[in-house]
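Human: I would love a firmer grasp of how sequence relates to backbone shape in proteins. Take your time, and here it is.
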Amino acid sequence: MKQVLIVTGGSRGIGAATAQLAAERGYAVCVNYRHNQAAASAVVEAIAQAGGQAIAVAADVAVEGDVVRLFETVDAQLGRVTALVNNAGILEQQRRVEDMDAARLSRVLAANVIGSFLCAREAIRRMSTRRGGAGGAIVNVSSVAARLGSPGEYVDYAAAKGAIDTLTIGLAKEVAAEGIRVNAVRPGFIYTDIHASGGEPNRVERVKASVPLGRGGQAIEVAQAILWLLSAESAYTTGSFIEVAGGK
């Protein structure tokens, strides 16, 4: 059966690394992005140059209509989705909770939590054996922030990732009998562009001394864990977490 993967937020960082590694392993890949068409197109081009199949689809996962269109586009151009990586997420400027307003909280929760729920919903509607699907796998990208709390920086982001952990556990149990496995990875301090969004592009360099392995992680290291969770090698694994955090 053809393996079709959607990677949300697939134009950069962990998402881009996951999309390219999945294509190398035979998946037809949809690289979802919100704004950066050039970056998404570059990922698709790299996959094509390596002999893989990929498309780029613009959609804001926090917008229900966009998510529906994303999956319908994949239906038409690649076929029924068999794997989903809920990777899209945002963080905002480092700030204490006492200085956060409701608009910021709504943006962070919409992108990180609501988006993952909506994408999971559409994937289940296509994967579930109860609905005529052939099963599949979902991997949510959480964060060690869900455990550590990110005090003084991103407690809102950490709380959103805590919600992703709960989604992973509950959904895994809900759809296990329908041929769908749901797992998550919890990256630690990874060298990606997301830190610039928080106002500190070199954050990993600042904090890496606190990591037991003594370094920051690379996006490909997270992608490799994601691909294992998508693969048949993890067929008896659901509702579980892999921490890619150097022991943090």
